[in-house]
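Worked problem 6 (solution included).
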Amino acid sequence: MTSRSVPARLVLAGACAAQAAVSFVSFGLPAIGPELRRSYGLSLAALGAILTANLLGSGLALIASGVAADRFGSRAAAAAGMLLSTGALVVAAGTHDGTSLFAALLVAGVGSAVVPVAGAAALFRAYGPERRGWALGVRQMAVPLGGTISAAILPALESAGGVRLVLLVAAATLFVCGAAFVAVLGRETRVASVGANAFRTIIRAAGMQRLLVVACCYVVVLQSLITYAVPSLRAAGVSHAWASAIYVAINVAAMVARVAWGRVADRAAGGRRVRTLAETGAVAAIGAACFAAAVHGGAGVALPAAVLFAFGALGWNAILYVSAGERAPVALAGRSFAVAATVVFVVSAACTPLLGALASRAGWDAFWLISGALAAVGAVVAASLPRRAAVEAADVADVSLPL
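Solution. The predicted structure is:
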């Protein structure tokens, strides 16, 4: 178990810092997309590949990271992953062509994949069921927070020292925050290893398959809002400044929603997770319908509708990840989290181009209504989940994951 000399909130702070540092890279680089294109002579397609390389690497490595966190402990896995990611970013800073940059960022993503997994595993040990939703919500809040901070400062860094300085600062940030995270994890007690059929156990856990269906529905809605809100607003005649301001409001709503929904889900000692997960989808469905109509009424009407939409569509992540971790045997919590996160990452990457094609063919009004319908489908499936997993009775805060 994590050493009791390390307060749970300190573990949470370390997990948030590490997650924000990862987002500094993966969600900040688009802010200097034109500069990357100019510096490396990239086509638009090549730029798209560069900007998704880090996320792709993480998506490919999440399950392996879950295995590492469960088998060797969060501390060892996090230390190794952060060193790999930091080193890859330093290498990226020295590259001179797009292919090398892509490869380095891909490796950086592979290394940083351990951060969400190890962080979730550590928080599962540090917090009981009555506090996990809140804790994971705070940790998930660090994702948009890190991206917002980096988007604000990366253009200035690039202007001062080019892309090389941006990548070196990102490497230094990741190293410092990663070291802080590793330092607060504390010792973990060695227990017996899990069997060879771990993933079969996870997939067959009560309600897990339906939970992954919910993840697929909800992440498509999330991507529709994050990726296409601004183009939709601009197409409706909203100014560039107002569209940008609404996008910032969407990210702020995401930060607030992940903590707020997590706290609600923790009620009744975590017994309200299913209901809360369904409620996020219901709010997203209502918000999508409101947003479809509001974009035609100008920025003043679109802003509150976008916030409502975001509060549902971007607030479910932590609850879903906690639910995934609690449905499998507790010794498989890290791996179970990784399975759910992999589904989210892969579907997210696959659906985004298809959503663009849908918007082009069907128009924005139909696009948002379809997104709302998908959120409603996810809410119905979420409401059908078993209220308690069979293994939950043994799920207590001081159990430890296998090393």
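Discussion: Residues 157 and 169 are 9 Å apart (CA to CA).
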